[in-house]
TrEMBL record:
The protein's name in its UniProt record: SUOX oxidase
Transmembrane regions listed in the UniProt entry: none
Ranges for domain Moybdenum cofactor oxidoreductase dimerisation: 1-75
Domain of life (superkingdom): Eukaryota
GO MF terms held by the record: heme binding; molybdenum ion binding; molybdopterin cofactor binding; sulfite oxidase activity
InterPro entries, alphabetized: Ig_E-set, MoCF_OxRdtse_dimer, Mopterin_OxRdtase_euk
Length: 76
């Protein structure tokens, strides 16, 4: 499977103030493949930022769980 991801913070439709925004979520893949990168767009796909993966790296070929990720980005 290709990497799948979900955003858990902020919630859909939430109003966010201008300034620094923290976006959090989780990602997973199939076949024991490790999630090595999560890209996040805050402008409908015009630009992308690389999120920070949280937690320990899984053993290669044994990455059966999801990975938490986080991104801090400025918003207008």
């Amino acid at each position: 499977l290709p990497v799948q991801s979900a955003i858990t913070q902020p919630r859909p439709g939430a109003a966010v103030p201008a300034g620094e925004l923290t976006v959090k979520g989780y990602a997973w893949s199939g076949g024991g493949r490790e999630v090595v990168r999560v890209d996040v767009s805050l402008d409908g796909g015009r630009s992308w930022r690389v999120a920070r993966l949280a937690g320990e790296r899984p053993v290669p070929g044994r990455a059966w769980a999801w990975r938490l990720w986080e991104l801090q980005a400025p918003v207008r």
